[in-house]
Amino acid sequence: MTELTDVPSAFAYGDSLLTGDRVRLRALIEDDLPALARWEMDPGRQVTLTDRVAPPSEARARERFARMCANDGDAVGFSVVALDDPQPLVGSVSMFGISAKDRSATIGIALAREYMGRGYGTDAMRVIVAYGFRELGLHRIALTVAPFNAAGVRAYEKAGFTEEGRHREAVWHDGRWYDEVLMSVLEQEWAGRRAGG
Q1: Looking at the DSSP assignment, which residues form a beta bridge with residue 107?
Q2: Overall pTM surpassing 0.85 (yes/no)
């Protein structure tokens, strides 16, 4: 953890808090909305993120991102940009259901198809988890994932998440039932991984 001793150390903490090795989380800007809405409306992507394929209207998708990334109330959300040159928008990440009493929250992440499998999601998860523990003072961060999203499960494990159970046969797609995998990471687990390198 960083001890803030003066204004430069405060600036350094703030500047580094939302930056990883491959991505930076930043506030949503108006120019992000067309791409985020287009990705939200992608039916194939919806299968990995929701319990049903029902693409929202563009207006509804834009409204959802604007609300999710307003960063007030019990949720925070960010645009995810790659630290490449140029720095493309690659997706979004949010933390919702933030409970001050229980010091817990749930995470959601969504990357554009063309940016999956490049390590951006793994790095974004590490950054948002660190943010949750370091800045929000959380004790537990959870998520759910489809069992067929093996790359997502691996990314979450790399960020410190452990499978803690399943909602059995909770999601129906194309005539088949799928479990919903429940994963979480606790503050002490994250701190232990961080101390260990």
Answers
A1: 95
A2: yes
